[in-house]
Every structure is written in structure tokens, then in C-alpha cells.
Amino acid sequence: MKLMKKTIVAFVSLVWLFIVTFGSHAQTTVKLPAKAYPVKVPHKTDAGVDRYWHVTQILCLGPSSGGYKFRIYGKAAQSSSSHTINMMYLLPNNRVQIAGAYIFPAITEGKSFKFDIVSAFKGYAPSSFNGFFIHDEALARILENERREAAQKAETVSPPPALPEIQNIVEDAIADTEIPSTEQQPSETEKDENIYNIVEQMPEFPGGLSACMSYLARNVKYPTIAMENGIQGRVLVQFCVEKDGSISNTVVTQSVDSSLDKEALRVVSSMPKWTPGKQKGKPVRVKYTLPVHFRLK
């Protein structure tokens, strides 16, 4: 119950952010279907995402797969591996609607990028909206923590160290000398059991992101009960890539149906070992999210 309340509070805060951000700027309304394509779509990117994927333009290219295809252009502010980013529609009268979580590609600092997404909120984009808001909670939290730490360091002024008394120098040196232990100490990598959201080198599926998507598509077994009832959609699965590249802690973060959820968990858990993520050159545990698509033809 506490978790549900926190989730609701977080969502309400996000909605408030949309209203404040777009309130005085969302004057352009995108209407779909349009008379002609491509159509320029207004957008706003939060600071956490923008420090990596600096989005400069979004175009609607037209209908695709029951929704609409959007092409995203930009320039990399910093290098990064691929990452799952949230996008939301801002609707008239300050209402919001989740577009979905999309995989933003790996980027190299200073180089341009472009990629396509297809709207997937219940399979359809809204008939009219005022733009996209691009947001990632993990990246925003990391940026906020960095800014807070920098502010705290700026406020802290360390006093100059006191000079030791001459007669105590030898005694202090002897007292502070530690006798080396003969027991083997755990390495820094072994000590670090934290699960990171973003690291210097993100984990990678063998062969890259496209190979990962191909693996999921080939190995998904569409549940019969879902097929018979015409149930389709996209399940988001979050998991941890361990230091040895194995997959653990799989959990559904965006559900469609219990049978589809179960199959999504199965196929993600069955993935081969990844190349683990690294922080300061050492393998660490990293949280990752992947979409598993279920489409009926």
C-alpha cells in the first residue's frame, strides 16, 4: 500500500511538471491523421536525458502498426550505451497520456543520431496532442544527486590541518602504524553489491541491442489463452545484469495480461549471459529494462 501511494505521488508530481513545463509553450496542436507528412512535433526533454540525448527535432512520419511512427533527431551531448526512456503525450486541457518506454540507442559524444519509435499506448496515438515530454526518473535522480553533492562540497570549507607537536611525532607514527593482515581481503569489485541504474559502461547483450530484440522475437512463445482472446501489447521487464553477465531479479514494470507477463519474464530470464556493466573499469550489477512485444497478425 505504501509503495502504491509513493507511485501515485510520483505520477502526480510528474503531471504537475508537465503542466508547468508546457503551460506557456504548448500552443501548437498536432492533429492525427494529418493532411500531409512529415509533421513536426513539439517536445521537451528533461535535464537528465538531455545531458546525453540532446533531442533537436521530432517528426511524425505517418500511420504505422496501429499507431503512428515518429522519428527522433538529435546530437549526443555525452557518450552512452542504449537506455530505456519514457515518453508521454501532453493532451489538450493539461491532460497527459503515457506513450510508452522506448529504447534510445547507444550514442557517441558530439555525433548526430536519429531513430524511429511507434506509439504504443493501447496501440494508438491520440488524435490530437500538444507535444512529447521525454523523461527518465533514474537519469533525473542521478543528476539531482550530483548537483546536491556539488552544492554540499561548495558549502563545506575544511579548516587547515593543525600542526603536530614535535615531541609527539615519533609516538604518533608508531601508534598509527598498522601491522599488515595475512588474511586475504575482498576486492573492491567483490565488496560492491550495489545495483546501479547508469554506469560508465552499460551492460550489453551479445551482438548488441538489435541482436537482443531478434533473440526476444525468435524465442517468445505466444500464450494460447492470450491468442484465443485477442490479447496483445507490450510488456516491460526490468532485471539486473550481474557482474558475471547473468540475469537476475526479473520483474514486470508494465503489465498487459498475466499470461503475457509470465511469458515475458520467462524469455528474458532465459537470455544468454550479457557483457556486464562496468564502473571505474570494474564489473558491477546494473538494472536494465527491455520491452517484450506481443502482436497478433
UniProtKB/TrEMBL annotation:
The keyword Transport applies. Residues 1-26 form the signal peptide. One of its GO terms (molecular function) is energy transducer activity. It is found in: Cell inner membrane. GO terms for biological process: protein transport; transmembrane transport. It is a single-pass membrane protein. InterPro entries: TonB-dependent_transducer, TonB/TolA_C, TonB_C. Keywords: Cell inner membrane, Cell membrane, Membrane, Protein transport, Receptor, Signal, Transmembrane, Transmembrane helix, Transport. It comes from the Bacteria. GO terms for cellular component: plasma membrane protein complex. The keyword Lyase does not apply. Residues 207-297 form the TonB C-terminal domain. Gene3D superfamilies: 3.30.1150.10. Belongs to the TonB family. PANTHER family: PROTEIN TONB, PROTEIN TONB-RELATED. NCBIfam families: tonB_Cterm (TIGR01352). This is TonB-dependent receptor. It comes from Paraprevotella xylaniphila YIT 11841.
